[in-house]
Design a protein that fits this description.
Elements: H1 3-9, H2 11-17, H3 24-37, E1 43-44, H4 55-59, E2 63-66, E3 69-72, H5 90-94, E4 104-105, H6 108-114, E5 118-119, H7 122-133, E6 139-143, H8 150-160, E7 165-169, H9 173-187, E8 195-196, H10 202-214, E9 219-222, H11 224-228, H12 232-241, E10 244-249, H13 253-258, H14 265-279, E11 287-292, H15 297-306, E12 312-316, E13 324-330, H16 334-345, E14 352-355, H17 367-376, E15 382-385, H18 391-401, E16 413-416, E17 431-434, H19 441-448, E18 458-464, H20 466-476, H21 483-493, E19 497-499, E20 502-506, H22 520-535, E21 539-542, H23 555-564, E22 568-573, H24 581-611, H25 617-624, E23 627-628, E24 634-635, H26 645-649, E25 663-666, E26 668-669, H27 674-678, E27 684-689, H28 695-707, E28 712-715, E29 731-734, H29 735-739, E30 746-747, E31 750-753, H30 760-770, E32 776-781, E33 785-786, E34 789-793, H31 794-797, E35 801-803, H32 804-810
Parallel strand pairs: 6-11, 6-12, 7-9, 7-10, 8-9, 10-11, 13-18, 14-16, 14-17, 15-16, 17-18, 26-30, 27-32, 27-35, 28-29, 28-31, 31-32
Antiparallel strand pairs: 1-3, 2-3, 4-5, 12-25, 19-20, 20-22, 21-22, 23-24, 33-34
Length: about 800
């Protein structure tokens, strides 16, 4: 391979070579990756800037220097379980595809609104239907794997229901900007602004706020801190007017996993959402859609508690991630960990994320230590995101990883604590390394999930010591307040200010043991008290009206401003016996027990993965993320594996997922237009066809029914070839598939198209299911017999009955 051919294959490498200050370490590892990707090809060095590099330098990156060429050798370190079969860098360097194609034909409303020919999976299709049908005050929770088109689920509704208004809450500025760029491409106008972020011009932010208040801003994308401060009053005006149609949260698992300790605005936003629904006109409340890639039973219970709905639907299409191969190695000490990390980063492809738990503590590896190791090894395109990073710092890291700026700003490695990565979408991350033991399997899985989002192979490597296990144990034992101290703190806070049924408490309230009431520690423990009471179901957190935020506030300013507002909290009491010390202790202890149980289970799962399993890692994760809702419905997870210790040991090759299992629980209710309902007061009607059929009249009837709220058309699919301008959500169900269901999540107006070829048993099951819908319409040949009673005609049993011409005149 020539030098120019090598540069043409890899934009990241090409940019690095164009920057004269680029380090040899950064360049060498990318050369290795591209030569591996080209089938372990040789690179001709003569006449290139690399021809004078010495043999020792090349060998450190697994490249064999032979005269005027270098070529890669397989990297199979003795400290990893490759079984002399595979190299950890091979598949990710080659970018081997790991994701299966599960596309299904797009429903008409999706195709019409977003110009999509297919939905990416059955799960996405059902989530799109759920979000589209969700009515006033309904809640939809959609658990869809990475790359399955979660954003389209909410964007489709937002686009279709314009000019009614939508807000999408996202965890990071970069995700907000990504969504805005996409929306602007779809609307074909680069001047519109949808992302309310600190980096935007003050005039643009003021225009968004005024637009929300006036009803002209149909879509807003913001972080929860901005939603709870600068956008809160405009959103309340939109809700009061009844024009707020959709409230969406992306990466909703964060609400359950992080709670008040990190990004507390996510839980505060739940209180704001309640307020927005409370003040909206009856029947004009916004629907809520919560999107996430992974969720466990504890997280589901938390979301269900914080975001209740008039009707609720859960759509779960979870699949274990097929892209990352799992690797792990125990290290004797920090020096051993350093050596293994540097060796790995000299072979594994870029971009790479290196995660650790600690920011400053020297109990084990912290971000500063890792940064110094990498600098000593010669890596230069590196930055650190740690502690509680500012949005601007997170944005700069994403900017560098994506190569969005000048070559001098490019980043190949980000060293981070768990604060980085939430909500970012950098599709081509090839490597994630943990130099710690995460305190929960959820954190581990989310951080590994940052790689391979483009559907191609990636590597997850975990390097750990016994000290890391100790740190994980301490982190998992979150400082949960006990019932005695919580009771003292509640007694000090309860004498707050009442407004109706809401109580505003002072988070600086002190009891006898408090020396500095305004200290962060006192406020922290009061917040923890309220959180424990909320988890125990004793109170509901409500949203306190904040002061105005200046339009020119940056994202950093908005987070800081949000923190300054946390000297008070507004709550609603759920139990009347909350001032009984015995009852208080009982309820708090029960809630604390469930939290500790969930935390212990998450820690055990993480350490079990680290120490090794006698089964496929992804099968273990599939059991971990099998959901169970409050009604006992269970939602299994489809298994795919990109490689793990057990599969390598048993000779199993990486597998793509088979078609994922989509499971739905709950019901959504939709109604037809008033004029159509009046014609079927009992919730049913039939339309009889005479022979020969008037296909023009059938198409005209179908168009009018769809415009009046009929959502589901059940037929032999080829029978529905209508061209309709109806923008309402509707789709076609195959009659035989539909009839096999015991129930349907959609309580929606449904049209059943009957032909003479349908078997009586199939038709009987279809009619039984149709009878459960709020409006069931049968379009049937006039001579078709009722399968339940062959002595009478179907249109005589399903009354009232109309001819097509008569019904067209009436609607």
């Amino acid at each position: 391979m020539t030098f120019d051919e090598l540069r043409a294959r890899n934009r990241r490498l090409d940019r690095r070579l164009s920057w004269r200050k680029a380090s040899t370490a950064d360049i060498a590892v990318m050369i290795r990756a591209e030569l591996v990707a080209a089938g372990y090809a040789s690179l001709t060095l003569a006449g290139t800037p690399l021809e004078h590099w010495n043999t020792h330098l090349w060998s450190g990156y697994g490249l064999l220097h032979e005269g005027t060429t270098v070529r890669p050798t397989a990297w199979k370190p003795t400290w990893l379980d490759h079984y002399d079969i595979t190299s950890p860098d091979d598949a990710p360097s080659r970018r081997l595809p790991r994701r299966s194609d599960e596309a299904v034909p797009a429903d008409p409303f999706y195709k019409q609104t977003m110009n999509r020919v297919v939905a990416k999976s059955l799960a996405q299709r059902d989530a799109l239907r759920a979000a589209a049908l969700a009515g006033a005050g309904d809640t939809v929770i959609a658990v869809l794997p990475t790359g399955s088109g979660k954003s389209d689920v909410v964007l489709t509704r937002a686009f279709r229901n314009r000019p009614r208004q939508a807000i999408i809450v996202v965890p990071t500025v970069s995700l907000a900007m990504d969504l805005e760029r996409r929306v602007r491409r779809l609307v074909g106008d680069g001047r519109d602004r949808f992302a309310y972020v600190g980096a935007a011009d003050a005039s643009d932010k003021e225009r968004i706020r005024n637009g929300i208040a006036a009803g002209s801003q149909w879509l807003t994308i913001a972080a929860p801190e901005a939603a709870c401060t600068g956008l809160a009053m405009p959103l309340m005006q939109a809700a009061e007017r009844g024009t707020l149609d959709l409230i969406a949260i992306d990466e909703a698992h964060m609400v359950a996993e992080w709670g008040d300790a990190f990004r507390p605005a996510f839980q505060t936003f739940a209180g704001l959402r309640d307020r927005l629904l409370d003040i909206a006109p009856q029947g004009r409340q916004a629907a809520t859609v919560l999107l996430t890639g992974t969720l466990d039973t504890y997280g589901l219970a938390t979301l269900t508690r914080l975001f209740p709905g008039r009707h609720r639907l859960l759509v779960s299409g979870q699949t274990t991630r097929p892209e990352p191969a799992w690797w792990s190695a125990h290290c004797a000490d920090e020096a051993d960990k350093r050596d293994k990390l540097i060796e790995a980063l000299r072979h594994l492809p870029r971009p790479a994320l290196v995660y650790t738990t600690l920011h400053l503590s020297d109990r084990s590896t912290n971000t500063g230590t890792v940064l110094s190791w990498l600098a000593d090894a010669g890596f230069g395109a590196v930055t650190r995101i740690a502690g509680n990073p500012k949005p601007s710092d997170r944005q700069a890291a994403v900017h560098g990883l994506r190569l969005d700026g000048a070559p001098a700003e490019d980043l190949d490695i980000v060293v981070a604590t768990s604060a980085f990565g939430l909500g970012i979408d950098i599709p081509d991350v090839r490597t994630v390394v943990h130099v710690c033991v995460p305190e929960s399997v959820d954190r581990l899985y989310q951080e590994v999930g940052r790689c391979g989002r483009d559907g191609y192979a990636a590597t997850s490597l975990l390097l750990w010591t016994h000290a890391d296990v100790d740190v994980a144990n301490d982190m998992a034992r979150e400082r949960l307040i006990g019932p005695d101290l919580a009771w003292q703190r509640w007694q000090s806070m309860r004498n707050g200010r009442w407004l109706g049924d809401e109580l505003t408490v002072d988070l600086r309230a002190e009891h006898a043991g408090v020396t500095y009431p305004a200290s962060d520690a006192n406020i922290y423990w009061n917040v923890q008290t309220l959180s424990a009471m909320s988890r125990a179901g004793m109170i509901k957190r409500r949203w306190p009206t904040p002061q105005e935020v200046p339009a020119d506030a940056s994202d950093d300013d908005m987070e800081a401003f949000f923190d300054t507002q946390r000297t008070a909290a507004t709550i609603e009491l759920v139990h009347s016996d909350i001032d009984d010390a015995t009852k208080f202790a009982q309820r708090l202890t029960q809630g604390r027990r469930s939290t500790l149980t969930a935390s212990d289970a998450a820690l055990t799962a993480a350490t079990t993965l680290v120490r090794g399993l006698n089964e496929c890692t992804n099968r273990y994760l599939a059991r971990r993320y099998r959901l169970e809702d409050e009604d006992g419905n269970q939602f299994s997870v489809t298994v795919a594996c990109g490689g793990c210790p057990h599969c390598r040991r048993t000779g199993r090759l990486p597998t793509r997922a088979r078609a994922s299992i989509t499971l739905v629980a709950g019901h959504l209710h939709a109604q037809a237009a008033d004029d159509l309902r009046r014609l079927a007061e009992s919730g049913r009607m039939s339309v009889r066809l005479t022979f020969p059929h008037d296909h023009t009249a059938i198409r005209a009837l179908g168009d009018r029914l769809l415009r009046r709220g009929v959502s589901v058309v059940v037929a032999n699919s080829e029978a529905v070839a209508w061209r309709t301008g109806a923008t309402e959500p509707w789709w076609v169900e195959d009659l035989h598939t539909w009839a096999e269901q015991l129930d349907t999540p959609w309580r929606a107006p449904t049209l059943l198209m009957v032909d003479t070829a349908i078997d009586d048993a199939v038709l009987a099951r279809a009619i039984s299911l149709l009878a459960r819908q709020p409006l069931g319409i049968v379009l049937t040949p006039a001579t078709r017999r009722d399968p339940a009673d062959p002595r009478r005609l179907l249109h005589e049993a399903w009354t009232p009955s109309y001819t097509i011409e008569d019904l067209l005149r009436r609607i």
